[in-house]
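Problem: given the chain below (477 residues), write out its structure.
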Amino acid sequence: MSETVSLPALGESVTEGTVTRWLKNVGDRVEVDEPLLEVSTDKVDTEVPSPISGVVEEILVAEDETVDVGTVLVRIGDGSGQAAAQASAEPAAAPERQAPAPQPAAAEPAPVAAAPLAPAAPTAAPVQPTYTPPAPVAAPQPTAPQPVVQAPLPPRAAAPAPAAQASTPTPAAAQAPATPTTGAPAPRGAAHAGQYVTPIVRKLASEQGVDLDTVAGSGVGGRIRKEDVLQAATRAEVVDSGIRGTREAMSALRRVTAERAVASLRESAQATCVKEVDVTDLMRTIAASAAQFERANTVPLGFLPFVVRATAEALRQHPMVNASVTGDTIVYPEDENICLTVDTDKGILTPVLRGAANLSIAQVAKEIVEVTGRVAANTLRPDELVGGTFTITDSGARGALFDTPVVFLPQVAALGVGEVTKRPAVVSVAGTDAIAIRSSVFFSLSYDQRIIDSAQAARFLTTLAGSLGSAAVDGVL
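Solution.
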């Protein structure tokens, strides 16, 4: 008896999805919670696990086909239908094995008899010594059958034969092609070095020039994740990605992001305010506390958790920057729900850290590691991408000095974080100016001038700079 698997609800606002890749083929076995297919929505690309175990009997939705939530995607059963088909095929093949006995000389029947003779090796082996010396089979040699009759000879290598059999080395080589057939039907998304590797990870590894055999997986059961490939890519030589000179359709995520960006720029009046902030004391705190912090919290300590926490505190003091606009109404949320931009191979995702102002530095650091891990593993839920009130994009992590982020409606502001760099700066020492090496970073606040003016934007950045300074003094553990 078979059961069906339908497209599940992937979030409150998600009504349809596109099947981008099947990870199992018809005839493959799938276990409960094993990834079955990949689905792309307007919010996230994700894997759909199988709710049942069994054999894939029928795939009802093709790749690149868009269907509504609730549509039946696949039929999974016990595979008895395929077993019956194989059983019925076996008796038909058995009588054919008797065909070599009459040894027909006509050219027409010879090809028919040749096909089943190879599987008959186990039965032919014991009789092999008797029929090896006489060669009446060579009698039809003038006719076309001679090359065909040679086909059954490979089983000689399979027999525990005497030394005389060694005079025909060809059978051993002829038998080799038969062995790979047991592993030939490898499904898409098949195991790699004993572990399941998703097509997305394999594609990323190909683009980054990473040999998956050299990558140790950090996922459940040693599964290789995107971040494992990206880490390995930093140590690998740069190679051609193979996509130069080609074309590909935009992913659903990129299409939606493009539409939202154009709509935001068309419907709001956006400007950007930039401030350089001295974070020397904070970077010293991070360097001094990193080892102890990681031992206590099992996650590394970096610059971004301080930025998130300081931003949340500044939003509390400047609620206008955390607001949204609905028609002629300004809405002030109760919480500071901060979106973090995460880069993926199909576009930017913005998972939400809810109630960021109520989180400690350690809690923020853990949240960042967990949410980016879910993005890398393609397990992010669509509801984790909605409800944000403010966005932070860490372009400095990718080596940018600063950028001017686009504000996506209904939000009214977004913060760009640049790269922390060391540079000479003028400092005051005992009332005297001096040149010193300082760590600094550029913060760029893009804002909607319909409700935020330049003075408010500058005050917000000043408060943010002060919060970062106090975070270094207050400690992190």
